[in-house]
Amino acid sequence: MKVVADTNVIVSGVLWLGAPHTILLAAEQARVKLSTSPALLRELEGVLRRPKFAARLRELQITAEDVTAEYARLAHVVNPRRVMRLVERDPADDHVLACALAARAQYLVSGDADLLRLRSYRRIAILSPAAFVRQCLTA
């Protein structure tokens, strides 16, 4: 199944255990096919460079660059043709939706309230990490 994970999911999945981590493990095991875009990879590296994550990255002995490069290898990188303005409160959310469309994803997984409020977009189900794990990864 094709999935786009929002940056918040990737950050949580790399730095801590829980549903986002389970999604990354499922991708490593080829149970899901993650997709990302150049814009989302830039956002991932930028978020991981924030001071609030520095101690955790040091503890795990990884860098923002390491995480971004590894995620770029794990996920299929797509290049959305167009990013339309859809989420007024956070234009970065538009890049997530554009990536999901370009990837022909079945699911968009996010912890972002604005995206979760949509519930779906052009037949792409938008779920929280916990809901995705419950509905798609537990059998």
Give an overview of the whole structure.
The structure is a single chain. The chain is of the alpha/beta class. The protein has one domain: Rossmann fold. The protein has eight helices and six strands. It has helices at residues 7-15, 19-28, 38-48, 51-60, 64-74, 91-103, 113-118, 129-137, and strands at residues 2-5, 33-36, 76-77, 107-109, 120-121, 124-127. The protein has a six-stranded mixed sheet with strand order 3-2-1-4-6-5, sandwiched between helices.
* CA gyration radius, whole angstroms: 14 Å
User: What count of structural domains?
Assistant: 1
Low-confidence stretches: none
Morphology:
globular
* Strand-pairing-aware structural class: alpha/beta
Strand content: 5-15%
Largest sheet: 6 strands, mixed
CATH class: Alpha Beta
Distance between the termini: 15 Å
The tally of strands reads 6
**Count of alpha/pi helices:** 8
User: According to CATH, what is the topology?
Assistant: Rossmann fold
Any key phrases for this structure?
alpha/beta, six-stranded mixed sheet, Rossmann fold, 139 residues
Helix-strand blueprint:
Blueprint: E1 2-5, H1 7-15, H2 19-28, E2 33-36, H3 38-48, H4 51-60, H5 64-74, E3 76-77, H6 91-103, E4 107-109, H7 113-118, E5 120-121, E6 124-127, H8 129-137
Parallel strand pairs: 1-2, 1-4, 2-3, 4-6
Antiparallel strand pairs: 5-6
Q: Quick gist of this model?
A:
It is built from 8 helices and 6 strands, in the order βααβαααβαβαββα. Helix content is about 55%, strand content about 15%.
